[in-house]
Amino acid sequence: MLVACGTLGYELPKDKWFCCDDCNRIYVALQNSVSAGADTIPSSLSELIIRKHEERGLCTYGSMNDIQWRILSGKSRYPEHLPLLSRAAAIFR
């Protein structure tokens, strides 16, 4: 497999997937985020999201300030991810 990561392309050894330490760190950080589950958005940001939605007439959350986000992974096969991934995929159909 030939891979380029901000450098000239080069052949990866069969036992390695990532071409550099930075790529490996990104992968580990993403995997940790998937494993950690939902994370609450700070209230300063959730207030901004709520205000923008209300301005556009999308939704009114009222006093709701517990907006969460999470990174999902279909490859991880976490049972709780599958219905969420299915609903997310439906948005793009």
Explain this structure to me?
This protein is mostly helical and 93 residues long. The chain has three helices and four strands; from the N terminus they run ββαβαβα. 0% of the residues are buried. One of its GO terms (molecular function) is helicase activity. This is Chromodomain-helicase-DNA-binding protein.
Structural class: mainly alpha
Total strand count, please?
4
Q: Which residue ranges are poorly predicted, with pLDDT under 50 across at least 5 consecutive positions?
A: none
What is the makeup of the main sheet? 2 strands, antiparallel
Shape: elongated
Residue-averaged pLDDT: 78
The count of domains is 2
Beta-strand residue percentage: 5-15%
**Over all CA atoms, what is the radius of gyration?**
19 Å
**Number of DSSP helical runs:** 3
Query: Helix and strand string, N-terminal first?
Result: EEHEHEH
* Strand line-up across the major sheet: 1-2
How much helix, percentage-wise, in residues? 40-55%
Distance between the termini: 32 Å
Relevant terms:
93 residues, mainly alpha, 2 domains, two-stranded antiparallel ribbon, 4 strands, 43% helix, elongated, helicase, hydrolase, RNA polymerase II transcription regulatory region sequence-specific DNA binding
